[in-house]
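Students often ask what a holo structure prediction actually looks like on paper. The answer is less mysterious than it sounds. You provide the chain, you provide the ligand, and the output is a string of discrete structure tokens encoding the 3D arrangement of the protein together with flavin-adenine dinucleotide.
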Amino acid sequence: MATEASAKKVAPRVEMPCQPPAERRHNFKEVALGYNGDMAATEASRCLQCKRPTCVRGCPVEVPIRDFIREVAAGNVERAYEIIRTANSLPAVCGRVCPQENQCEGKCILKAKGEAIAIGRLERFVADTHLAACAAAPDSCPSETSETQAKGRVACIGSGPASLTCAGICAAAGLEVDVYEALHESGGVLVYGIPAFRLPKDVVAAEIAGLRELGVRFHLNHVGGRTVDVADLRKDHDAVFIGVGAGLPIFLGVPGENLVGVFSANEYLTRINLGRGYDFPEHDTPPFPGRHVTVFGAGNVAMDAARTALRMGAESVHIVYRRTRAEMPARAEEIEHAAEEGVEFALLSAPLRFNGDEQLRLTSVTLQKMELGEPDASGRRRPVPVEGAVEDLETDLAIVALGTRSNPILLDATPDLARTERGYIEADPETGETSIPNVFAGGDIVTGAATVILAMGAGRKAAQEIVRRLGGK
Ligand SMILES: Cc1cc2nc3c(=O)[nH]c(=O)nc-3n(C[C@H](O)[C@H](O)[C@H](O)COP(=O)(O)OP(=O)(O)OC[C@H]3O[C@@H](n4cnc5c(N)ncnc54)[C@H](O)[C@@H]3O)c2cc1C
Ligand code: SF4
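The corresponding structure tokens follow.
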């Protein structure tokens, strides 16, 4: 029997235009430029409109993908936007940063032919078209309306994708929502972690503005566990959602890590992104440019840090990784973009120590050469040191991007909140409820460092339960 994919000849995927590498490595403007209307319609018309769309199974928030793509193909972009918004409150963000290749596109029936529908790019096109239309003619853009079935008050602590999603769904159901954010800007990693060349600040701001229109109140500079605590919030809110992420950096633990010039990726990216360090002296966060930069780690965070360092004017940027390129956990597209821009890869190398001058400024890192041995518990071949193979790499800025863990501030201030062995919040997988009744949690603070869409999926699950308990559908 012919499958849906084989029944029809499928045209190739429409490529996404990008800024040329030589140009973009000197600016913070967005790298991928997005589809225009013709490109989007052509790409959308490749979709087979499957009766049982497998793509939706790959989406943690279950966007009705087939339905919105059908509207794009027909030129009804605003209708497509409405369809996406039934499940996703941050489509312009997700269209840019979701690992689609492992999610919706990974499950698209056309993947078998190597040419899955570019669902993320289409989602981005729809959201951007909507935001541009609203910006051009605000009066003609319908305000978000709430469905007002549920009654009550909800507090969200943290304002990353988990809390923003929870807040959006609760507000749309008629609940009063207060978001308490420790920093001076809302958005979580979307603003302080992911650089503007992958996710422009105004895109995040526009999607957050949509939540404000729904009535969500943002209280910035409020630290959960210090300025506000869960016990107090429970007194005047019917439910509390904790979405504080997992932002405490993990370090290498090698000698010299306290030298001037060694940063965690978290601090480095926050200075540049949230503090607008790339806009000095317009913004007065002192930048730390670095001439020869080394980045330790090989995930998306490492790629972001390396590409940021290039844009800050570094002469050389090396990613130091103890395995090979094939084992790098970052998205393939991010690794390719980094390489195209000039990031070099010091593979099969592990840091032994950082070396400094008499002013305790970093001057070089000593690297141990490695080779791959037998597979370890993760199934990947274990890196083993090659005896005597040691070399120094000149560096004046080192960025450690090895991952993060939970920050104890809120957890220590809330002793009756049960934690997992790994120090994250224990939450019911179906509802997100914690050991404290009507206190919910989701996102990285429950799973450990994960993805935007998984955090959004957790925020959505908790919101649906909160709305149900407070009288909504
Ligand atoms: C550099 C970088 C690049 C990434 N790239 C991608 C990518 O391309 N695609 C992808 O899917 N994922 C990516 N991720 C991961 C993704 O961003 C996270 O998984 C996601 O943001 C987690 O969402 P969250 O809502 O749980 O937490 P966060 O986004 O971390 O938000 C938590 C918020 O809570 C605030 N907060 C913390 N403590 C308190 C407190 N005590 N009181 C009040 N507020 C508090 C924080 O300031 C923050 O605003 C990246 C992460 C980083 C660091
Ligand atoms: S995106 Fe892929 S799986 Fe989804 S409906 Fe279209 S062809 Fe089918």
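The chain has a mean pLDDT of 92.
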